[in-house]
Amino acid sequence: MVEMESENNPIIQAIEAYATPLLRDMGLELVEVQYRREGHGWVVRLFIDREGGVTIDDCASVSRQLSAWLDVEDLISHAYNLEVSSPGLERPLKKREDFIRFAGRKARVKLQEPLDGRRVFTGIIDRVEEDGVVLLLDEGPVTLAFDAMARARLSL
């Protein structure tokens, strides 16, 4: 899948490099890191998950450890809020492994460029191939290449 602009941000890259092994040691997965300006100021937001879901204690523990690290590293020179949470029911699908894990579930995929005049596809994840995923749509199966995807997430 294509990296979105924010994922090329050095602050996001540093947080991912620190948080990924930390979370793995805790039995957790880093789903996504966001760093952006919102109405009330800057926000660093981590979405974490694990088989069976995350607890409030998981989020609090990660928040404490990450906050301490961010204070020491001083990566961000201005005020910001740190948020750690579950990705929710419509979690992003960022890696090939995500599509494998959620095979049989409904997903919504937005492409960078239209395919047969269409950019958004919603269907059941049928199978994952080397370079893409097959979604079962109402009108039949469609193969979508990972490198053509702008975004993908589970759908209700």
TrEMBL record:
Gene3D superfamilies attached to this UniProt entry: Ribosome maturation factor RimP, C-terminal domain, RimP-like superfamily, N-terminal
GO biological process: ribosomal small subunit assembly; translation
Ranges of residues in domain Ribosome maturation factor RimP N-terminal: 20-90
Function summary: Required for maturation of 30S ribosomal subunits.
Subcellular localization: Cytoplasm
Keywords: Cytoplasm, Ribosome biogenesis
UniProt entry tagged with the keyword Cytoplasm: yes
GO cellular component: cytosol
Residue span(s) of domain Ribosome maturation factor RimP C-terminal: 93-155
Family in the record: Belongs to the RimP family.
UniProt xrefs under InterPro entries: Ribosome_maturation_RimP (IPR003728), RimP_C (IPR028998), RimP_C_sf (IPR036847), RimP_N (IPR028989), RimP_N_sf (IPR035956)
Protein name: Ribosome maturation factor RimP
Gene label: rimP
Matching Pfam families: DUF150_C (PF17384), RimP_N (PF02576)
Organism this protein belongs to: Desulfolithobacter dissulfuricans
